[in-house]
Specification:
This protein is mostly beta strands. It is about 5% helix and about 45% strand. Strands 1, 3, 4, 6, 11, 12, 13 and 15 form an 8-stranded antiparallel beta sheet that branches. The relative contact order is 0.17.
Length: about 325
Amino acid sequence: MALIFVDGFDHYASTDFTKKWTAIASAPTIGSSAGRRSGGAMQWSSSGYATKTLAGTTSWVIGFAMTLSFVSTAGPFATLLDAASTQCDLRINLDQTLSVTRAGTAVTGGTSILALALNTYYYIEWKVTIADSIAANSCKVRVNGVDWITVATGQDLKATANTTANQIRLGGTAGGLTGSIDDLYICDNSGSTNNDFLGDCRVDTLLPNGDGNYTSFTPSTGTTHYLLVDESTPNTSDYNESSTVTNKDSYQMVNLGALASQTIYGIQVSGAVLKDDAGVRSLKVGVRSSSTDSVSAAQGPSTSQLYLSNIHETDPATATAWTESGVNAAESLFEVA
């Protein structure tokens, strides 16, 4: 598997949801201090949720911190969908136990004995393969590092004609469910690393704090590039721009909070980007580590501001796992394509 998306909900406001997520319903919000480490969190009430479209794949591992404050109706809080049709979901029951279902249909071994307490953050991880008959241990739910659910071998977790999902939906898709989600990671089965539960993870947001090696873009004001893109929530009032192919801008970033020998599974570089005229324009998003640049394939911005992102599971300068010092020395990088 490979790490394909993370979100710590610390770098955008409620009005910016659809700059990073594909769609929302019933107005989920960003609580700026609602996270489990006093940072941001996605909050929802009733049937509020956010949906993210990703590349279709068969196997998934999803992890996030979650706290529930109100449960009056059983229903999903994490759903995998195939083109908007539910394949399978992870849901809360009225007794606050957890269940995995095939689009609402119970499966053998799919309900936990243990229950969640209200107003308490738990780190919940869900590993699942979409199939008519799943292999042993291919659908499990882990809470705070302990297995709560192991769906029985041979159960059916495929509700559509396809064995893939291409969307994840988080939040209360049924009324009567209120909660918050923080520190989200999503992995698929496209790679050879990050291919199982990652464990309790944190997602740290690092904002620019200095100009980097490249300063080819033109600032909208002044001469210091990073000051125009260092806001904790995006805006369009100040920016750096370029229409010249191969021009690059890069930014030094604030340091990570001190780590206690923890694993860094990857970094996700994100930029709030738009184009200001008709015609084709592309951008590559990436990282500069030491003297090595690594960027994504060309991505097409819209005339409305959207986040364009790219994940790096390893340090491109060493081709090995990131270290704290490696992350602290790296620069975020944007290249006109």
